[in-house]
Structure formats: C-alpha cells, structure tokens
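User: I'll paste a sequence; please echo it back and then give the predicted structure.

Assistant: Echoing your sequence first, then the prediction.
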Amino acid sequence: MPAVRLDILSLVPPLYRQCAHCETLYGQAGIGDLVQSEMMGEYPTDLMDEHVRLSEWVRDWATRYAGVLQIRVIDPHSGLGLWKSLRHGVRKYPAFIVNGREKVTGWHRQQVYEMLSRALAAGGRSA
C-alpha cells in the first residue's frame, strides 16, 4: 500500500470517456475521437488549460513517486469533494491535501513537492 496519499480537489471536465458504456458505443460507431474533440471544444479554454496542466503534474508525480504515492483527483462538486472542501477549509482550486493533514491551495508546484517530501521523510502516514 502506498505510504502517502495525495488528494487533489480540482474541477474536472466531465468527458464521455468516464463512462465505459458511452466510450464503447462511440468507439464501435467509429466516432469516438470526433465526439471527444467536440466535447472538449465546448468547455472554456481556461478550464481545459488547467485540466491539461494538472494532468501533466499528476503524470510527473505518478512517475516520480511510483509505488509510494496514491493520487486521487476529486471534483469539488461531488459529495466527497464538497465534504473534503468543507473539512479542510478549501475555497480555491486546485487544492492538494497530503494524508488528510497538510494542504496547499493554488498552483504552487514547489510547495506541493515540499509537502510530499516531508510526508515521505516522515515515513508516510502520520498518526
């Protein structure tokens, strides 16, 4: 089990690829890429830019901390996201929460790295 859990509260564009049935249907019809492209084009550019930026960060952390870091991206509009936002006093997104204790709000990548380093140095989950 990974030693450190990173919960990321961030707006997540709801794409059909999150629905396995829709993905299969569109794929078999040969229109999957077209539908995906049209859906992504309907979202505001700044939201999609943030989504791409966050995706790059997540890929980097997943590679850098493979085996010791569990990453969950949570939409603040979901029940879990609302609960975590209230519990941790999050009012701006994205928010990065390590082991349910430390948090960084906003696009402060270096601060997130430092928070992850402290958690890993402490042996992961703290009591």
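The first strand starts at residue 4 and ends at 9. The chain has a mean pLDDT of 84.
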